[in-house]
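Support request, priority: normal
Reporter: lab tech (M.K.)
Component: structure prediction queue

Hi team, I submitted a job for Exo-inulinase from Sinomonas atrocyanea yesterday, and the status page still shows it as pending. I've pasted the exact input below so you can check whether something in the sequence is tripping the parser. The sequence length should be 499 residues. Please let me know if I need to resubmit or if it's stuck on your end.
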Amino acid sequence: MTSIASAPTRDRYRPRLHYTPARNWMNDPNGLIFHRGVYHLFYQHNPFGADWGNMSWGHATSTDLHTWAEQPVAIPCDDEEAIFSGSAVVDERNTSGFGDGSAAPMVAVYTSAYGKESSRPGIQAQSLAYSLDEGRTWTKYAGNPVLDRGSSDFRDPKVFWYEGPAGAYWVMAAVEAAEQRVLLYKSADLIHWEYLSDFAADGPPESVWECPDLFELPLDGDPERTVWALIVSVNPGGVAGGSGTRYFLGSFDGVRFTEQSTQPSTAPPREPSLRGSWLDWGRDYYAAVSFGGLPHRRVMMGWMNNWDYAAATPTGVWRSAMSLPREITVRTVNGHPRLIQTPIVPPAAQTTDATEVLGAAGSGRRAALATPAHGKVHRVSISATAPAAGTFGLRIGGPGAEGARLTVDPAAGEIRLDRRGSGRVDFHQDFPSIERAPLEAGERMDLEVYIDACSLEVFIQGGLATITDLVFPHGRDTEIELFADPSVVLATVEVAVLG
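Reply from support: The job had stalled in the queue. We restarted it manually and it finished. Here are the results:
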């Protein structure tokens, strides 16, 4: 929920649980950090309009990841540089020397995108800003940039503190975007950086890599066995078209990330040349990065949009939302480590058991589950068994035939989200689409679907796969309809109101 004194009257497409700025453009989440009981969400922001430009760091805060308060612009652009994506750390050891002895400095590591008339025309380099008042005000480091390769595509630094056999120091993961490489550096003080290694994987030649993240997770909950995850966003070349986010699992020894073998993205692989897997199989989950400062927990958020049509989405004075926050774990599935994503949402205010809504088995089984009132968030949870030829799913949208159609299809080994008839789809030729996520073989199929104004987030088999899509229904209220073939056995169907 967004709580902003200056927010306009809630319009029909503004989500309730997903963060949106009161006005103007937003894209990548930046500088996600938890410090002294507060979650800080910085993000790419145009303070002056609802289109991309004037890139600055917007800022919002929360104590629960559900209710967000928009703060003043944290780091504004100027005539010299735009403030592109990056990360933030709390320098508890004051390695940078920015602290004044009263509190540990919060340090933003961002990409300086230098303009044509600047001191470094066209260059992208890494710079620092620091805050001594819990992120309220920021001072740019006088010695910026701190890392300059002379490149026009070197950006998106993710920085974290590493302690391991190789030593203890800051590590930066950044990208040479057009070369599709993640570059790793180390530093003792956040100011002086030393090259470590780089990582690359096959991808479409026209694609760029952006917004890397690198973190360690216990495998199957065992802290003695860990896996490192490397996250990379790609544009174009996403699995559903346009922009998307890949992940690779492996090891990191303080110098080099080494990928382990992972299960193909699909069976058979949809893109045999691609290693790793997809963090989300929808059209609208990009630039996902994780919060620093959370002990024993890894939480990510992504930008809920797609570069194919982001500038055209019909939301008026504001543009773009963040995804639900997702807790990330890693679990062994069929002998391979896989990332698991679990949404973080507030407790349900109301829950309805709708298991018997379809009645006895028969042809044409369909029934209304709910008609969420404007401004309400619903979660639909379904657990079912189906023979190979049986399908079931949800229609989510306006009255009659309009709506996005989510179909579980064991015979095809996939779950489809078809938004071609979901409402307003003609604002861009690339928006009407069908998304497909792999369905792991098994007797029982479990879904959780979150419906919040213009957003649909689908968590499959306990978060083993996800689909995130935008939808823009014509009406203010949304109908949720369940359908199932006669052979499908619905073990549980639950509808919960979250807001």
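Confidence is low (pLDDT under 50) at residues 3-9, 263-269. The two ends are 8 Å apart (CA to CA). Let us know if anything else looks off. Ticket resolved.
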